[in-house]
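Researcher: Re-running this chain for the archive, since the previous output was lost when a drive failed. Same request as before.
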Amino acid sequence: MDKKNVLSAKNLHKIYRKKTTNSVHAINNLNLDVQEGEIFGLLGPNGAGKTTFINILAGIVIKTSGNINVWGFDLDKNPRQVRASIGIVPQEVNLDPFFSPKKLLELQAGLYGVKKKDRITDIVLKLVSLEKQANSYARSLSGGMKRRLLIAKALVHQPPIIILDEPTAGVDVELRNNLFENLKSLNEQGVTIILTTHNLSEAESMCHRIGILNKGNLVALDTTKNLLDKIKTKKVIFKLNKTVKLNNIANSSLNIISKKDNEIEISYEKNKISIQEIINLIQKQDTKIIDISTDDADLEDVFIRLTKD
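Model: Regenerated structure tokens:
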């Protein structure tokens, strides 16, 4: 069964008009759908338009043209319902240091018009593992706890979609892992998650689908697996019992990267030659292969290829 789209952008443009210089096209004809229940990664270098897109959804930036629909609501006709359907976790930690987590979440729920009897403050605190710190001052929380409290703030009105803007910028490895366990748990409970990140290995491990923005243009939109499969070149390192002659394995789809002693590193186009054919070419020279290590393409290869000028 096809999953429904919970967020759609159609022909979206954002142009910043400057008096002194040419106007800047921050988002250029963006067409994007996010499906219910997925973890969607929005990637791109600085200035690609990721934060502009999030700010349009949040109501901080006004789009120039195009349509946005969130959870069945049109941004132009129902801006309040759109904002009620999303919870945004910002990059910056912006918490009042003199409030406790519990008080902050109660205030946030009040801002969204959640009635006292419908508030889920204690549930949200437990969800982000802050129930023990519920009544501590925010200023006494560690960096990791503050990040989790930002996620909790985005959850108080129970939105079906959560958007995280660079959630692990400047965060240590342990905290990053902890955050992602929290996010996976939310996703398993049916929350759709949109993630912007610079960390490509993070996107690779977390996201079901990925959109890559570059200079306001969507340059890729596919499943993470399909994006990785598009990279044609693979690398392989052979440790041999003796030196092989390069000219004997010269092939248009092979490229010798380096050769030292009895070790040779080769890149090859996987759609033109298989690893087995390369092994056969080496073994024909009466050479024994002691060890093989391959370097599969990762998201960084895709990203560099799609965002280079």
